[in-house]
Amino acid sequence: MEVGFLGLGIMGKAMALNLLRHGFKVTVWNRTLSKCEELVEHGASIGETPAAVVKKCKYTIAMLSDPSAALSVVFSKDGVLEQICEGKGYIDMSTVDADTSSKIYEAIEKKGGYFLEAPVSGSKKPAEDGQLVILAAGEKALYEAAIPAFDVMGKKSFFLGKVGNGAKMKLVVNMIMGSMMNAFSEGLVLADRSGLSQQTLLDVLDLGGIANPMFRQKGPAMIQNSYAPAFPLKHQQKDMRLALALGDENAVSMPVAAAANEAFKKARSLELGDLDFSAVYEAVKGSKSPA
Q1: Are 43 and 148 found together in one domain?
Q2: What are the positions of the active site (predicted)?
């Protein structure tokens, strides 16, 4: 199976490598083309533009940083729309809002192409291990055609119906995750300021009803002030903002998520945006930068 892949950031690179390792023929593109070189060493071809990738491949996957990037790759000069046509499918796995997905869907449908949104739950390590959870919505036939690729990149795929539902589900998931991370950070600070061992707190949490992989994986690094980016904080804050906008649309009061978003915004103002989203801990404890 031959696929195109647009966007080789932390997530996209790992996902494309998994496809190559499982025998897929992959043509890659990234705005900074030098990022494609490692993939070429594993057998990938390079497309000079998104349009060139779509022209070559029946199915093209995109994994981009935010709504503006997702729209630019489709609508700009040499973008996806220039070559999408009947019989070709475009799968956007970026985390965007439902309106962005809908705009892309409508444009691709007008050109005769098929569209699927398929944002993922999971960060760098699950992407590397092929353990993502894929939240797809849109053209059912394209979803079924993409299952072999999804099975390589993820541990479970969900088909959620019409375009927009995948984006909404991903924002709800990331809103909960960001709110939890903020509460977790407050707990670590409170334990420390109360004279308690933070490591003992981690041990206690891991034995109780709120034990979860995020606390288990992030906690030890957080108490060492280590924040290697698996999911950049700036992207978590973007998702909090988009989730709050979804709440506005549906008249849902979200004071917990709103407070968490303020903490992530504070962390960004402290220039922590490129670190892992767990670096919100630094904003909560009042540091100017990680030690």
Answers
A1: yes
A2: 170
- Measured in degrees and rounded to the nearest 5, phi and psi for residue 55 equal -60, -40
Residue 227 is part of which domain span?
Answer: 168-285
Q: Which amino acid is at 86?
A: E
Q: Which of 130, 163, 196 is the last residue of a domain?
A: 163
Instruction: Let me know whether 35 and 96 are in one domain.
Output: yes
Where b means 16+ CB within 10 Å and e means fewer, 200-230 reads ebbeebeeeeeeeeebeebbebbbeeebebb
Average pLDDT over residues 281-288: 85
Would residue 291 count as lying in a domain?
no
163 contacts 94 by C-beta, under 8 angstroms: no
The CATH number that applies at residue 275 is 1.10.1040.10
Confidence of residue 1 (pLDDT cuts 50, 70, 90): confident
Predicted confidence (pLDDT) per residue in 8-44, tens digit? 999 999 999 999 999 999 999 999 988 999 999 999 9
Q: Which of 13, 88, 124, 170 is catalytic?
A: 170
Q: Is 238 a catalytic residue?
A: no
| 156 shares its domain with 181 | no
Interval 141-150: pLDDT, tens: 999 999 999 9
Q: Which of 129, 165, 159, 125 is nearest to 145 (CA)?
A: 159
Same domain, 159 and 191: no
CA atoms of 150 and 186, how far apart (whole Å): 36
Tell me the per-residue pLDDT of 165-214, one tens digit each, with 9 for 90 and over.
999 999 999 999 999 999 999 999 999 999 999 999 999 999 999 999 99
**Among candidate residues 275, 290, 178, 280, the one with its CA nearest the CA of residue 229:** 275
- Residue 125 has, within 13 A of its CA and on its CB side, a CA count of 7
Domain count, the chain: 2
